[in-house]
Amino acid sequence: MLKVLTTRCSAQAAFGVHLSRRVPTGEPTSPLLRVILGQNRRSPYFVQRFFCSDSTDGSEPAEPTETKRVEAGDEAAESKSSSAIIPTVVRPEDCLTVIALPLPHRPLFPGFYMPVYVKDPKLLAALVENRKRQAPYTGAFLVKDEEATDGSDADKNIHDLKGKELLNRLHDVGTLAQITSIQGDQVVLIGHRRLRITEMVSEDPLTVKVDHLKEKPYDKDDDILKATSFEVISTLRDVLKTSALWRDHAQTYTQHIGDFTYPRVADFGAAISGANKTQCQQVLEELDVHKRLKLTLELVKKEMEISKIQESIAKAIEEKISGEQRRYLLNEQLKAIKKELGLETDDKTALSAKFRERLDPKKEKIPPHVLQVIEEELTKLQLLEASSSEFNVTRNYLDWLTALPWGEFSDENFDVIHAHKILDEDHYGLTDVKERILEFIAVGKLRGISQGKIICFSGPPGVGKTSIGRSIARALNRKFYRFSVGGLSDVAEIKGHRRTYIGAMPGKMVQCLKSVGTANPLVLIDEIDKLGRGHAGDPASAMLELLDPEQNANFLDHYLDVPIDLSKVLFVCTANVVENIPNPLLDRMEVISIAGYITDEKMHIARDYLEKTTRDACGIKPEQVEVTDSALLALIENYCREAGVRNLQKQIEKIYRKIALQLVRQGHEAQVDVDTPEFGSMSSVSVAEGVKAEAEDMKKSENASEAEIVDPPADEGTIEAEKNQESEAAKNLEKVLVDSSNLVDFVGKPVFHAERIYDQTPVGVVMGLAWTAMGGSTLYIETTHVEQGEGKGALNLTGQLGDVMKESAQIAYTVARAVLLEKDPENQFFANTKLHLHVPSGATPKDGPSAGCTMITSLLSLAMKKPVKKDLAMTGEVTLTRRILPIGGVCEANFNIHCH
Fold first, then answer.
1. DSSP string of 160-173?
2. 487: Cβ–Cβ under 8 A, 6 or more apart, which residues?
3. Whole-angstrom Cα distance, residue 509 to residue 407?
4. Cα(414)–Cα(417) distance, rounded to whole angstroms?
5. Of 133 and 10, which is predicted with more confidence?
6. Which end of the chain is more exposed for a tag (fewer CB within 10 A), N or C?
């Protein structure tokens, strides 16, 4: 239907110049027309558009209409002629040979206009020539559908076809059409009567012989025919009510073609319907009036349903739009009323009031340069339109400026005893860290004010670097804020974005101050040794201003663009490997190393902290489980040799989860045992007594139900008995004991085994101590001779040793030769023996100078053929002058001594 409307509207624009005569209208004179139009009065004038004046269906002669004669050869008069058919010498019924004009979209019905675009130059020239020869007629035939082609391809193929190929693509039945005007390649046609192709006359342009078709005779008084036509008219009336355009079509059609007859009603209904071209062609080809009416009735019924759907959609959309407009109008009126009464202000006034309300309590504490910026932005906010993008930028900027805690500090705790107690509650050991915090508190107490510091805790994972930061904040009574910089590669995360960017935000420090609400928080910067570097800048360099006590008093964030005082902030950083921190940044921090815990410290931490926390988290009572010291010791030595206690916590949680499952299963079994009597152990007498008692209970219950007696105390007693049974069952649960003997059942097989390979150390083998980032480790240094001979002294090294360790081995070899020459000058062992020094395991890379004294001892043991003590372990760097340098990692080495 939309397609038809579009086509006909384009037709209006195409030849409105030719069809501009206005026809006065009054009451419909035709009874059939009055039925269709329903006596609807309209405007007294309308524009004649689509219908001809001398069209006939062939069954009845058309009523004579007023026409204007146009002089032949006067083209100007032709272009201004009326829409009535121009009288010509050639009558329509005399046209037995016509030019075949293909119609690609819809057939042309008698009485209707149709514009057609002709792209074939020869065909267009032939039509122009016919019009000049006073024979302006052609045959309009619909093109058949071709499978597997869309509309554009079909049009292209039609204009390419010639002769018989084009004839085969046309429907046999078409319409004799009068050519009213030709403008460029647009030809305007008026349908007259039905035609049927009989044979082809010429191919280019396609000219055919035709027969004029007439409707089959019909009885006008036939009741079935009347009923069908009245139903079509009734449906058409309903359709015409929905559109004024169709009403104009009906009025114009009757004025130029006469009153509606049964065939004309069928043609009119099919022509205005939105049916496809195949269905319209069926109506055009049907000569039986009754069948044609039935086909038209189907089409107009579909048109009516489409009109109803269209009307319902339009009504729903109109209601929605009108409802939204009404709601918007009422809201605007409500805002205006509230504004007049002083109950509500506009958005800009409300925002300014909110920002000033934030400023008033701390206006005296805000620095003057910041206050000046805020006042300028507030003035700017009042001048901006609320719909502009600059308004949102200014609003967000003011939101951040007014939300920061300018000059607001939390009351610090300067009680050293109280702070020491809090630190001991949360962590065991860490003496250096606690002493440094207590020193910080003591200095603040003596000065009466505390300053910010930059402290860096370094150590292996799991030693409590991050958790000690939270404890320090609690001990100092400061707000705590943590953010991790591991993998950070964007400077904007530290310094913020420029406000000109979409979605700009301040840096982490400004977000921190807004979050905590004070200007002296404790900020924990985690994983500072893992800072990244990308295309967005170097965050390590941006941290220099943040972590410099001389610069952070005027820290400048790119978003705020005003200095912020961070001198009161206590920065605590954590790192695993200090060497990965850039030197300029490391120079600004006070580094406190946290070594790994030894076995005794791990025992205290597991017993006093980890076990208690895990037991409460699992909902287990202390009397329900017992973990012995031997079990904890075995857990530490065989499963958790790391320097930290994170893995130890995981293993303890694993133990208590299994204990919780075991307790739940025991409780379920105990409850089942209490509820279910053991019939297997009862004698036959007891069974009989039980059956008898059960029968008596059933009898009593029946009597009670007959008397309708309810005894609540008995029910309460039963509930109490059940509770007592449950409590007794809980008390009867066996206490779970975790010992070294059954530890494997809870945590599986041991991960670590004793690294002591030899019960008795052989000649040339010495145990050494090594330091790692995860704590400490032990390793053996083995030396053996390969071959002996005059002057074959040499040293071969294996064990994936680094360059420093290889140099240390060469130094040890030289020192050992000197020591042996001094102690036993006659012993030429090193001069005449090729030696092989190996450090297992071979897959582990090793490097460092601390194995020097161990290698010397191994070489001298082999040379003097004396084994070292089995409980001896060594570490230390040796110089060529036999000096042993100070060692590092004593705590880690000590931890390994405890393990072995």
1. H--HHHHHHHB-SE
2. 530, 532
3. 16
4. 9
5. 133
6. C
Q: What is the predicted pLDDT for the residue at 811?
A: 93
Distance CA 195, CA 90 (A): 17
User: CB–CB of 151/106 below 8 Å?
Assistant: no
CA distance 296 to 301: 8
Chain position carrying tokens 């190996």: 838
CA distance 652 to 655: 5
Residue 315: predicted pLDDT: 85
d(CA 468, CA 119): 89
In terms of average pLDDT, the best of 85-89, 163-167, 540-544, 893-897 is: 540-544
Find the length of the chain: 900
- Taking the CA atoms of 306, 307, 313 and 316 in sequence, report the sign of the dihedral they define: negative
What residues pair up with 785 in beta bridges, in sequence order?
Answer: 835
pLDDT in tens, 185-239: 888 888 888 888 888 888 878 888 888 888 888 777 777 877 887 887 777 777 7
Contact 191, 112 (CB under 8 A): yes
**Structure token digits, residue 623:** 């009397």
DSSP state of 176: E
* Residues β-bridged to residue 626: 737
Q: What is the pTM of this model?
A: 0.54
- Distance separating alpha carbons of residues 450 and 474, to the nearest angstrom: 16
Supply the angle between the helices 262-272 and 277-285 in degrees, to the nearest 10: 170
Q: Specify the amino acid at residue 114.
A: M
Please give the angle made by the CA atoms of 131, 132 and 134, to the nearest 5 degrees.
70
Q: What is the DSSP string of 429-441?
A: --HHHHHHHHHHH
